[in-house]
Amino acid sequence: MTPRRVAVLVGSLRRDSLSRKVARALVALAPATLVLELIDIAALGFYNEDEEDSPPAAWTAFRERLRPFEAVLFVTPEYNRGLPAVLKNAVDVGSRPREHSVWGGKPGAVVSISPGPLGGFSANQHLRQSLSVLNVPLMPQPELYLGQAAALFDAEGRLASESVRLLFTQFLTRFAAWTDANRPR
Predict the structure, then answer these.
(1) Which secondary-structure segment (H or E) carries 122?
(2) 13, 96, 103, 146 - which has most CB atoms within 10 Å?
């Protein structure tokens, strides 16, 4: 079977963010049935429906880049108990025009990260709420909230423990099964 291509969107623009480190670790640990690819969202500019008649080139490129992917994985920090604006903006840009949404029917999952103990619960739930109206079947279990996220990595930026590696591997195995079961037809 051909591996499924999964778009990975990171909700932080910072090069060395914990979210980006988690995303890179997930990419590296993906099972052979999935090919995870990081998609840059930094250049999108804020969504404004008035610009849809002649959409900015960055919007068009983003939409076209996402279309061929079969699934999507969101990796996000939590900012002020909510979803980072840059990630919500990417969701909005990809959802328009409504009849050409890049999200519809693609199975997805959300991983949230926080330096604090709650693991980005609020950001995770905010994103799930937005994606539910965009016909993205989100993996309900396991949920992955990563609190105290700085402790996940050693001084060189590698996963700090075998237990974290196992957690990520188990999550990805379940996500692969989820993408199989919810593949767009």
Answers:
(1) helix 121-132
(2) 146
Band (pLDDT 50/70/90 cuts) for residue 116 is confident
Mean of pLDDT over the chain = 95
Residue 153 φ/ψ, nearest 5 degrees: -125, 150
Q: How many structural domains compose the chain? A: 1
Give the domain range for residue 66.
Answer: 4-181
The pLDDT value given to residue 168: 97
Whether 15 has a pLDDT exceeding 90, the answer reads no
Give the per-residue pLDDT at 28: 97
DSSP 7-45: EEEES---TT-HHHHHHHHHHHH--TTEEEEEE--TT--
Burial of 49 (0-12, 13-18, 19+ CB in 10 A): exposed
Q: Find, among 7, 2, 3, 1, the residue nearest to 107 by Cα.
A: 7
- Which CATH number is 46's domain given? 3.40.50.360
- Give the Cα separation of 122 and 149 in Å (integer): 15
Token digits of residue 45: 């500019």
In this structure, the dihedral spanned by the alpha carbons of residues 179, 68, 34 and 84, taken in order and rounded to 10 degrees, is -80
